[in-house]
Design brief:
disordered C terminus, alpha/beta, P-loop_NTPase, four-stranded antiparallel β-sheet, single chain, six-stranded mixed β-sheet, ABC-type phosphonate transporter activity, Rossmann fold, ATP binding, Phosphonate transport system ATP-binding protein, 10 strands, cell membrane
């Protein structure tokens, strides 16, 4: 179980994340929603320890994550893989090499760049690409792929870390509807099939309700909602998004993944 206890982060005296306490069960798919600037990205980066907390604790099973340093911290970052909105691929490298960079923690950067990957690791990388439906792109330069394909390459790279937790920071924010569906379907399959905990920041409430087991709403860095998708009523939405939110489309019946078939035809 992942446990956050009174977790906080300040920048220039302002609380970006303010005393967040959460428990995330192993194998859960958790959606984090809120306005831009609510603290969603900072929260995920603290869990991965890309950003150090100002206060509070992060625990995962018997590990005190917030106290890890050196090699143990690197091991945690491998076990807690991060997927970014900007993909963070090396555009001039081919796709399969980008995926194998998920093994950096085992080889080190210089060893990886020197071609230290084994044939077995290459096979695993190709299997990950095949699982995500893009094996045919393996030898293409990453920069030649569409945004949706690049995000699936980033997911494949994260899988090569053999993570226990997968963090996705606005993974579909820059994608078209069809690509968004493919990426969210992939994250859901990984969550269900591999029993990997997935925590995903999302702007689209309908997608959060369709794919996530539980939703946490942040406002001004604090948790203001923590519950099932069906419990997101007008009062909860107003608390998360403020009085000026237009709730009409947000309060429609939540769509299920099969309702996104119109996207695939777009």
């Amino acid at each position: 179980m992942l446990i956050l206890e009174s977790l906080g982060k300040q920048f220039d005296g302002r609380a970006a994340v303010d005393r967040v306490t959460l428990r995330v069960a192993r194998g859960q798919m958790l959606g984090v929603i809120g306005r831009s600037g609510a603290g969603k990205s900072t929260l995920l980066r603290m869990i991965n320890r890309l950003v150090d907390p100002t206060s509070g604790l992060i625990r995962h099973d018997d590990r005190l994550v917030s106290a890890l340093k050196g090699r143990e911290l690197m091991r945690w970052r491998a076990a807690c893989a991060m997927i970014f909105q900007q993909f963070n691929l090396v555009g001039r490298l081919d796709v399969v090499t980008n995926v194998m960079l998920g093994r950096l923690n085992r080889h080190g950067f210089l060893g990886s760049m020197a071609g230290a990957f084994s044939a077995a690791e290459r096979a695993v990388a190709l299997q990950a690409l095949d699982r995500l439906g893009i094996a045919q792109t393996a030898l293409q330069r990453a920069e030649t792929l569409s945004g949706g394909q690049q995000q699936r390459v980033a997911i494949a790279r994260a899988l090569l870390q053999e993570p226990e937790i997968l963090l996705a920071d606005e993974p579909i924010a820059s994608l078209d509807p069809r690509s968004s569906k493919l990426v969210m379907d992939a994250l859901r399959r990984i969550n269900r099939d591999d029993k990997i905990t997935v925590i995903v920041n999302l702007h689209d409430l309908d997608i959060a309700r369709a794919y996530c087991d539980r939703i946490v709403g942040l406002a001004n860095g604090s948790v203001v909602f923590n519950g099932a998708p069906e419990d997101l009523d007008s009062q909860a939405l107003e608390t998360i998004y403020g009085h000026d939110v237009e709730t009409g489309s947000l309060l429609d019946e939540p769509r299920r993944p099969t309702d996104f078939r119109v996207w695939a035809a777009a």
